[in-house]
Specification:
Layout: H1 3-32, H2 36-40, H3 45-54, H4 56-81, H5 84-90, H6 95-137, H7 140-143, E1 149-153, E2 156-163, E3 169-176, E4 184-196, E5 199-213, E6 218-230, H8 250-254, H9 260-264, H10 266-278, H11 282-295, H12 304-331, H13 336-354, H14 360-370
Antiparallel strand pairs: 1-2, 2-3, 3-4, 4-5, 5-6
């Protein structure tokens, strides 16, 4: 690789990484907020961070594209404004030679997006969903809330004064009124949830059990040093979960298991597959658009801001159009060819413009805009 290629790639890498990390950080933070309530209610910090990190591949699929596009647009516009592109061009380098480092990045991002789309993203989304379901189904996610009366089942209420850093609960009250004729109240100084081979158990220490027989208005009181309460009947039981299309690996999209739900949702599965195959190709199309915005036409400062603005708007419009086509293709199979044609067609047109080609009506428009007004000196 020539020194000039390394220099341009270095100029590209800085804004691309900055934009990518900035966008990723904002979106990641907003997505992570959905776990904050669970963190407050007892979700371990390590689990919270793990869940948040698992969201990153799904976010990077789009922020990498935007970072590459705007990074290329910014870097080449800066090289142009500093007259470095003009010097390189005057030294005999063709526009294709100047564009080559950006295309290297585009190809690299394309392969990275395939890796994210077919491996890391489905793994992350699947794991997040599994952990979220497990946490929601866990009884501890409900009763570990401090200072409030929690209903864990019909006519069963639990109160905990506080929870120690080790996970032990202090100041426990459990009121069980599932048998209206004989309500039972458990009170204990401390306790903890444990998992056993027979299911979850709630072990309480130093407390008492109060049972009231309403028919005879008789109170029975039992003191204990340790009491184990079977709480397996309170846990939610999740049935078989259908994997969403974005949580499936490549083989599960191409060869889904035979089921009524998969047959009914087959177009969603195919739509997800088409999206994963096509989305990385937009990296190349976006780079060509950015290059066309800076390098199309003659090297002149006149009208350059308008070209950059049009290029930026075109890139954003392309991504919006792609998202719309992905959504519509799920309902209409006739749209599927357009998904593949769009990035290829845009790449050809933008590449033609970036290499110095001309489209007459666009050129005429800029000539009219930049022409001196009659009567002016």
């Amino acid at each position: 690789m020539r020194n000039i290629d390394r220099y341009i790639m270095k100029q590209l890498a800085v804004p691309m990484l900055f934009i990518t990390f900035s966008l990723t950080g904002v979106i990641w933070l907003s997505q992570s907020l959905k776990f904050v309530e669970k963190l407050i209610n007892g979700l371990p910090v390590s689990t919270f961070l793990y869940l948040s990190v698992l969201l990153l591949p799904g976010i990077l699929k789009y922020t990498l594209l935007l970072g590459l596009f705007f990074g290329t647009l910014f870097a080449f516009n800066k090289l142009y404004s500093d007259s470095e592109l003009i010097v390189m061009w005057s030294a005999g380098l063709s526009k294709w030679a100047l564009a080559r480092p950006a295309l290297y990045f585009a190809v690299l991002i394309t392969f990275l997006l395939y890796f994210l789309g077919f491996l890391l993203t489905p793994f992350g989304l699947r794991t997040v969903t599994e952990l979220r379901v497990a946490w929601q189904d866990s009884l501890a996610s409900v009763v570990l809330r401090e200072g409030v009366f929690n209903s864990i089942a019909n006519n069963v209420t639990v109160y905990i004064r506080e929870k120690s850093p080790s996970g032990e609960m202090l100041g426990i009250l459990v009121h069980d009124e599932r048998i209206p004729e004989k309500p039972v109240t458990y009170m204990a100084e401390r306790g903890a949830f444990i998992k056993s081979d027979d299911g979850p158990r709630f072990v309480m220490h130093t407390g008492n059990l109060q049972e009231v027989a309403k028919d005879s208005a008789k109170l029975s009181l039992l003191y204990f040093d340790q009491y184990t309460l079977d709480i397996s009947q309170f846990e939610k039981k999740s049935g078989a979960r259908w994997l969403e299309p974005d949580q499936r690996y490549f083989s599960e999209l191409v060869f889904p298991e035979q089921s009524e739900r998969n047959v009914r949702e087959r177009w969603k599965l195919w739509g997800e597959l088409h999206q994963r195959l096509v989305l990385p190709l937009y990296a190349i199309a976006l780079v060509f658009i950015a290059l066309a915005g800076v390098m199309s036409g003659e090297f002149t400062r006149r009208g350059r801001v308008k070209r950059i603005t049009i290029s930026a708007a075109t890139g954003v419009a392309l991504l919006i159009s792609a998202m719309a086509l992905f959504r519509v293709s799920v309902e209409n199979a006739l749209i599927v060819p357009a998904i593949y044609v769009l990035p290829i067609l845009v790449s050809i047109i933008a590449g033609y413009l970036a290499s110095g080609g001309r489209i007459r009506f666009i050129e005429t428009y800029f000539q009219q805009k930049n022409a001196p007004i009659e009567g002016q000196n």
